[in-house]
Write a structure and sequence with these properties.
The chain is mainly α. The N and C termini lie far apart (35 Å). The chain has a single domain (39-169), classed as Tetracycline Repressor, domain 2. It is built from nine helices and no strands.
Length: 174
C-alpha cells in the first residue's frame, strides 16, 4: 500500500483511477470523495493487519501465549514486508496524529483497537498495569519499525520484539 511509503495523503482519485483502470468519475461514484477513499484504505489496512498479525495468534489461549504469538506474527509481518513502507499503524499514526476529521478518526480507531487488544491480553495474563504495558509494547514495536525502515536488518526488529516479550514476561500468569 502506497500509504506506508508516501502517506495517506498520497492516495488520490487520479492515482487510484490509473492503478485500477477505472475512470475518475467511476471511482467517485463508488467512494464519493478522496477522503472516503482514504478512510477505505485504513479499513483495508486493518483487514490486512488483522490477517497478518492477529489471525495467526487467535488460536492461542488468551493472555501470555496469545501475546507471544502476536509478537511472532508481527515480526513475520514486518519481515514479509506486507506493507512496503513498514507498519501501517506506525506510519499513519505519525502522519495523522495531529489532524482532525474522518481519516484521522479512522487511524485513531485502528490504534485504539490495537492497544485495547494488547491491554486485554495483558490483563488476562495478570499484568498489574495492562494499559501501560500495552503502551510500552506498542512503543517498542513502533520504534523497531522506525529503526528497520531507517537502517534495515532484522536486528532492529528482533530487538524491539525481544523488549516487547520482556513486558509480557512481567505478567504473573503468562
Amino acid at each position: 500500500m502506497v500509504a506506508t511509503v508516501s502517506g495517506l495523503d498520497s492516495i488520490t482519485v487520479g492515482g487510484l483511477a490509473a492503478a485500477t483502470g477505472v475512470s475518475k468519475s467511476g471511482i467517485l461514484t463508488v467512494f464519493g470523495s478522496r477522503e472516503s477513499i482514504q478512510v477505505a484504505a485504513v479499513g483495508e489496512a486493518r483487514k490486512i493487519f488483522a490477517a497478518a498479525v492477529m489471525a495467526p495468534a487467535w488460536g492461542e489461549d488468551p493472555g501470555g501465549a496469545r501475546l507471544h504469538a502476536i509478537l511472532d506474527a508481527w515480526l513475520a509481518y514486518q519481515r514479509g514486508e506486507v506493507f512496503r513502507g513498514g507498519c501501517f499503524l506506525t506510519a499513519t499514526s505519525v502522519e495523522y496524529g495531529h489532524r482532525d476529521g474522518p481519516v484521522a478518526d479512522s487511524v485513531r480507531a485502528l490504534k485504539r483497537e490495537w492497544l485495547t487488544l494488547l491491554a486485554a491480553d495483558l490483563a488476562t495474563a495478570g499484568h498489574p498495569e495492562p494499559e501501560d504495558a500495552a503502551f510500552r509494547i506498542d512503543a517498542l514495536l513502533a520504534g523497531a519499525n522506525t529503526m528497520y525502515q531507517l537502517f534495515g536488518g532484522d536486528a532492529e526488529l528482533e530487538r524491539g520484539v525481544r523488549h516487547a516479550r520482556a513486558v509480557v514476561e512481567e505478567c504473573p500468569a503468562r
